[in-house]
Amino acid sequence: MREVLSRILDEYLTNREKPFEKNELANYIRKGAPDAVRKMAHLPQKYLVKWSGYTLAKSQDSTPKS
Question: What tens digit of pLDDT does each residue of 30-41 get?
């Protein structure tokens, strides 16, 4: 969890003015961070991790929130 938060905090200032759509940090926050948290927490597949409008389901696919 520390690694996830450290990356977000370390890269935020340099990325905050960049376009959100193609921003590498924004993509990490939406897709990479939730998966990393789920793996670090050793959550069983039956639990969902929701983060920034995306849900990691049992298949580990990120899908936009409807």
Answer: 778 877 877 888
